[in-house]
Specification:
By secondary structure, the protein is an alpha/beta fold. It has five helices and six strands. Helix 1 (2-12) runs parallel beside helix 5 (117-138).
């Protein structure tokens, strides 16, 4: 979803952070900041959760990270375009925990369904709406950052 995020960020002139533990080339666009964190399972998540706040947008399918971001006041978009906010995050956490338990018990062996063109389109539309809403709510000339996890 990186290409879609970058297109929207450039169109709206929004500062965007791509957080990773390495392996990504820097971007020439000054609006795109690559943040390299230490190696480790939650290093990128911790950076995002520590830096994100109200009016920001996080892109992740990681439900524990999404929960932390929502608690910090951010809006979360999953790569399929699903919005996770304070109204939906509780159910998402509960479902994730249930599914983890079922997988550990061997009751579920398959993964999620394949990513589709409709998911990509839904994501692009949801991101556009989220950025426009964030720009209106801040009522400044500097829109809030998009924060993505790689």
């Amino acid at each position: 979803m990186k290409d879609e995020v970058l297109k929207v960020a450039q169109r709206h002139q929004v500062k965007t952070y791509i957080v990773s533990d390495g392996g990504i080339r820097p971007y020439q666009d000054p609006l795109i900041e690559l943040v390299i964190v230490a190696q480790g399972a939650d290093a990128a998540d911790d950076w995002i959760a520590d830096e994100i706040g109200a009016g920001d947008i996080a892109i992740t399918s990681d439900i524990p990270l999404a929960d932390r971001c929502v608690k910090a006041g951010a809006l979360v978009l999953k790569p399929n375009g699903e919005v996770l906010d304070e109204k939906k995050i509780g159910a998402a956490v509960a479902t994730r925990n249930l599914m983890t338990g079922l997988r550990e018990a061997g009751k579920i062996t398959g993964g999620p369904r394949s990513f589709s063109k409709q998911d990509r389109s839904r994501f692009s539309n949801a991101l556009e709406v989220a950025v426009q809403r964030a720009k209106v709510s801040t009522k400044t000339t500097s829109p809030p950052p998009l924060t993505g996890e790689d």
